[in-house]
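Recap from last week: sequence in, structure out.
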Amino acid sequence: MSAVSKKTVTLADTEETIDGLTVLGDYHMNGGYDWMELIEEHGWAVLSSWGCDGWDLGQWPYVMVAVTRTADSIGNLFGIATYCEGDVTCTYYRTKARLWDAITEQAFASWKNGQAQGPADLPEAAAELPSRYRMPYAVRDAA
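Predicted structure tokens:
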């Protein structure tokens, strides 16, 4: 499988079949930073942080989470790809809420196993995380 290709995808949340989505595949040619540059050319962005305080997401350049947004005639489509030392999984959702859940699951796993610095008060399961840990990090204006 190519590192970047167009494919027919079944959405994970609605089971709709969508043609021609950009799908990320395994990338063992170079390292994670090269993967990051490659996917940016195709509309994907790697997230560095997650949650209200911007805790680390993944363990760059070995483990990374990337996202994209596109649309079809019905509405928005949200993609998530996880990179782990060249092994890549790619999933699409119809809703932003389900995308955020998927990112939160990845963040929780990396925080819980010590790959990344996360909140000190982690529960036992990702589903138990408070809402402040289940959202994108937003830089707040100091003014």
